[in-house]
């Protein structure tokens, strides 16, 4: 029997405020909640190998769990529903050739920093039983949310996953590096011409400007306060797109915000300014901004880190709205011209 990674001391006695924040549903977590969670988890050794961007998204989607010794997390043959990262403690990986728990053999243990449960990507049954060997603390991400994390962060997640299927197939002898290289080769096999072809829907700047980032924040905050129904999960062709808006409705809404916006074309140009800077994105990253039934998201929601605005934030953004609209209206015509040129 070998150990995947080292154990660690309990973190349960650390300030519990961050745990309280993790008990909330992701959509109910405020910016302050996410700051509290991130400030705690970034100092936990289990997350040393996690990229800051990935960790921020886990702060949005994750839940905290603590389990006493001897608790079965899931059984061999069960269809997975969650992905886990071990904060502290230790779990046993047990395999039975007869599917009888009495015949199960411990092939390895999972310690602090181990991430597992990726079989939920394909709703496949678990190939092993996982049981706590001692008091254990975990971060848990539900299946629907982990699929979103995987779509957005494949390369970042490849380096932190432990495949229980590989461990059971080879008796726990395959290294994490081998698993990572296989995952990477699999993702490269799906590359297409689109990877290298110019994409007119891609941002024209690598890093959003401070001014336009603030403009996007103001519009998102006002939208959530005055028209929260516009930002919601939507279905199209049997697929669900989370926390998105409809392009034509975004144009309508902007026209209703005051005399500064006086035509649909002007409204399109203002939204295109934000799309060019990466503040808003088409959900499939395929379209520039269009006054049509197409789905768009604010960057925070696309990355899975969008929060509910605080009362103070709402008041600040309300005061800034007209200045924000004026600024976007001034830049909009240039964005419209670039949009035309990028199509040709």
Automatic annotation (TrEMBL):
<dbReference type="InterPro" id="IPR036388">
    <property type="entry name" value="WH-like_DNA-bd_sf"/>
</dbReference>
<dbReference type="Pfam" id="PF00027">
    <property type="entry name" value="cNMP_binding"/>
</dbReference>
<feature type="domain" description="DEP">
    <location>
        <begin position="231"/>
        <end position="300"/>
    </location>
</feature>
<protein>
    <submittedName>
        <fullName>Rap guanine nucleotide exchange factor 4</fullName>
    </submittedName>
</protein>
<dbReference type="InterPro" id="IPR000591">
    <property type="entry name" value="DEP_dom"/>
</dbReference>
<dbReference type="InterPro" id="IPR000595">
    <property type="entry name" value="cNMP-bd_dom"/>
</dbReference>
<dbReference type="InterPro" id="IPR018490">
    <property type="entry name" value="cNMP-bd_dom_sf"/>
</dbReference>
<feature type="domain" description="Cyclic nucleotide-binding">
    <location>
        <begin position="46"/>
        <end position="149"/>
    </location>
</feature>
<dbReference type="Pfam" id="PF00610">
    <property type="entry name" value="DEP"/>
</dbReference>
<dbReference type="GO" id="GO:0035556">
    <property type="term" value="P:intracellular signal transduction"/>
</dbReference>
<dbReference type="InterPro" id="IPR036390">
    <property type="entry name" value="WH_DNA-bd_sf"/>
</dbReference>
<dbReference type="InterPro" id="IPR014710">
    <property type="entry name" value="RmlC-like_jellyroll"/>
</dbReference>
């Amino acid at each position: 029997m070998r150990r995947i990674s080292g154990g660690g001391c309990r973190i349960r006695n650390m300030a519990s405020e961050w745990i309280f924040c993790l008990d909330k549903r992701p959509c109910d977590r405020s910016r302050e909640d996410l700051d509290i969670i991130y400030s705690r988890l970034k100092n936990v050794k289990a997350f040393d190998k996690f990229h800051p961007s990935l960790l921020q998204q886990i702060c949005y989607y994750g839940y905290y769990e603590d389990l006493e010794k001897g608790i079965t997390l899931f059984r061999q043959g069960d269809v997975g529903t969650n992905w886990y990262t071990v904060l502290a403690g230790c779990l046993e990986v047990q395999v039975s050739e007869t599917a009888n728990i009495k015949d199960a053999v411990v092939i390895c243990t999972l310690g602090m920093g181990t991430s597992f449960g990726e079989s939920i990507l394909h709703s496949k049954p678990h190939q092993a039983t996982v049981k706590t060997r001692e008091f254990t603390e975990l971060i848990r991400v539900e299946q629907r949310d982990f699929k979103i994390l995987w779509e957005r962060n494949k390369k970042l997640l490849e380096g932190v996953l432990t495949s229980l299927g590989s461990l059971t197939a080879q008796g726990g002898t395959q290294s994490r590096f081998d698993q990572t290289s296989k995952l990477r080769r699999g993702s490269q096999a799906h590359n297409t011409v689109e990877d290298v072809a110019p994409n007119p829907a891609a941002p024209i700047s690598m890093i959003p400007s401070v001014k336009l980032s603030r403009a996007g924040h103001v519009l998102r905050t006002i939208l959530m306060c005055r028209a929260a129904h516009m930002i919601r999960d939507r279905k199209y062709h049997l697929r669900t797109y989370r926390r998105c808006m409809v392009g034509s409705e975004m144009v309508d809404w902007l026209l209703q915000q005051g005399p500064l916006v006086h035509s649909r074309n002007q409204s399109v140009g203002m939204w295109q300014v934000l799309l060019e800077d990466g503040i808003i994105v088409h959900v499939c990253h395929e379209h520039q901004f269009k006054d049509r039934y197409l789905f768009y998201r604010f960057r925070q929601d696309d990355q899975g880190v969008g929060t509910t605005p605080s009362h103070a934030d709402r008041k600040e953004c309300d005061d800034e709205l007209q200045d924000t609209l004026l600024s976007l209206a001034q830049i909009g015509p240039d964005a419209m011209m670039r949009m035309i040129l990028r199509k040709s």
